[in-house]
TrEMBL record:
Membrane topology: Multi-pass membrane protein
Membrane-spanning residues: 30-52, 92-111, 132-158, 178-199, 206-230, 242-263
Origin species: Borborobacter arsenicus
Name of the protein this chain belongs to: YihY/virulence factor BrkB family protein
Key words of the record: Cell membrane, Membrane, Transmembrane, Transmembrane helix
Length: 283
């Protein structure tokens, strides 16, 4: 009974603060900003990869970003992204690519603002520090994607060597699609840990951010599955928005994911508040 009361208090606290602190509006802001930051980030990352000689980066990056999205949502956008990224660029250090990195960092800033509200903290770090940190996130993500693209390039060779020398691994090798999904999921988990741990003001222990991360992952899976089923059976987006259907579907999907992400932060904050209150009563 005591656990039920505790769970109810935590959930009411998280949902109440999400609603009172404009969580629905923040989810809209985060969704639109994420969509606006996606293309600039991929353009910047692809240009940097091409500069370093990784010509096959574009396709790998698209898979990493979109493999965890429902196919109905990801496929149309992924095709357009590939069309954009396969345009040859040699302007890595020009104003356009620097501007792309800046716009990509705006997505990181939207995450920071959402988490600061969710964790109920006031930002005290300087604008320059925050912007440099956001740009560092963009560069680190780019380098991470580049490393993954190189690993995937050698993955078939390593897989054949493993199967030739170790028979017991053959049933576990799966397909390249499975491995791409696993890699994309790992990137999401590491990204969630990084943004919850470093972006918001203040300091948190790793154990304090785990519940929200788990909630976000489960919510992402459930929400995307339900939305994909809705698109398959009941959606009128294509007839309503015609050529804009793909972008409208992406916006709604990102809105759902953004609300789940913010609720994950709210859940972490609510659990911490509950534990602090219990500690005060116990003291």
């Amino acid at each position: 009974m005591r656990k039920i009361v505790a769970i109810r208090r935590v959930l009411f606290d998280a949902l109440g603060h999400f609603n009172d602190d404009d969580g629905w509006s923040m989810a809209s802001h985060l969704a639109i900003t994420a969509l606006m930051a996606l293309f600039p980030f991929l353009i910047f990352a692809t240009t940097l990869a091409s500069f370093l000689g990784a010509q096959a980066f574009a396709e790998t990056a698209v898979h990493i970003v979109f493999d965890t999205w429902p196919e109905q949502i990801a496929a149309p956008i992924a095709r357009e992204v590939v069309n954009v990224l396969t345009v040859q660029r040699s302007d890595l250090l020009t104003f356009g690519v620097v501007l792309a990195a800046f716009f990509a960092s705006n997505g990181i800033e939207a995450l920071r603002t959402s988490l600061n509200r969710a964790y109920r903290v006031i930002e005290t770090r300087s604008f320059i520090y925050r912007r440099l940190q956001s740009l560092a996130f963009v560069v680190i993500a780019t380098v991470g994607f580049l490393v993954i693209s190189v690993l995937l390039l050698f993955a078939p060779i390593l897989a054949r060597l493993a199967q030739a020398n170790f028979e017991w691994v053959r049933p576990y090798m799966g397909t390249i699609t499975l491995w791409r999904f696993i890699i994309a999921s790992t990137v999401i988990v590491l990204g969630l840990i990084a943004v919850h741990f470093w972006l918001p003001a203040g300091k948190r222990r790793f154990t304090a951010i785990v519940p929200g991360i788990i909630f976000t992952l489960i919510g992402w899976l459930v929400g995307s599955t339900i939305f994909a089923a809705y698109l398959d059976r009941f959606s009128s987006y294509v007839t309503t928005y015609a050529g804009l259907a793909s972008i409208m579907i992406a916006v709604v999907f990102l809105y759902i994911v953004s609300a789940i992400f913010i609720l994950g932060g709210e859940l972490n904050a609510a659990i911490s508040r509950y534990l602090e209150a219990r500690a005060r009563v116990g003291a």
